[in-house]
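user: Please supply your own:

assistant:
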Amino acid sequence: MAFQTIRGTFDVLPDAHSSGGSEIAGAADWRHVEAVVRRVMAQFAFEEIRTPVLEPVELVARGVGAGTDIVSKEMFTVERSKETYVLRPEVTAPVMRAYLEHHLDQRGGAQRLYYLGPCFRAERPQKGRFRQFHQFGTELLGSEDARADAETIACLRAVYDAFGVSDTRLRLNTLGDAADRPAYRDALRQYFEPHLDALSETSRDRLDKNPLRILDTKNPDERAPLEHAPRLPDFVGAEAADHYAEVKALLDAQGIPYVEDPLLVRGLDYYTRTVFELEHGALGAQGVLAAGGRYDGLAQEIGSKRPVPAVGFAAGVERLFIALQAEAYAFPDGPRPDAFLVCLGDAAEAAGFGIAQTLRASGLAVDYALGGRSMKAQMKAADRSQAAFAVVIGEDELANGQAQVRDLGASEQRAVPLDQLAAALVREAAG
């Protein structure tokens, strides 16, 4: 073949298939997952927002953080007319940009927004990780209330509960406020100075620029020294500590389980106070299904004159599919035609096109074979389509103004006048 999908991307086909060592669900299963997500979002009164795939590179660099792996290693950039754009690697900064640009605060109250769509990162493809991947998430903008944090976590939990995903663990921590960070950074630098030989080149660089990122390492050799490293919650101020205590109390009151992890920091610069990750056992080293937290300083980072308190989460759709497969989730059957027309002979084929349009105008889903195939071949096609009924039309049926309607489930057949066919099938479909 002349062309194939780019490494780290995949096609969503009508049927499930394998791509690059990963199992890709069929289109009907994708639609089902998206429908469940949208239903839960509606229950929590979140409204959908859709931002462009292309954004200014400065938005991502300033919003996500110039020292992050996303900005330094993983962005797909596009140059056009001396301007540089980026294929969005995440959606929080674009949503905040839209909030500020369109003055969504003027709608009144906190804004509950959700999104669902593709993102792009130039990283090594592996199980559950692609260069084009899909995320859904929420952004609750305009409230400092601890209930906003708890509400975000409850919504996240509700999505996975809606699918019956059970093998999960919610990790929770507080990063405190920006004013709490300098003392903690200094404590980390002092602690790691004697352990420099145990750190990778990347972590040594992080120790100099932003020591908190060392806490986010996935390198098992670097995890051991972290066991005795200073804990961020010990450096958090009273206001942020009270906020965190209230978040935990709200989660406890609703029976939402979590594990406190003082080493949890998340990998993006814009987080403050509450941070969390939801893990699943089926994902191995890449065990995070979803993650998020509070990011009250992001608006000012991207040009706002005033802070906008905000909290949200992002979740990977591909990783959700891995979890669903591991837990043997039973997807509902995909859509099937109400009727499959079996047209025998030139006259019936010519009439069949108009009959199909009439049935569709009545709200029925109708399929038929093309190319003058035999009755046996057409009946096989009807079975494969999983249509409820086969509608057989030949020369005799046309002469009599009738069609033979065969119930493909019960193998029963009866004659129905053509001028009553749509009404009869609509009654059958409703029954």
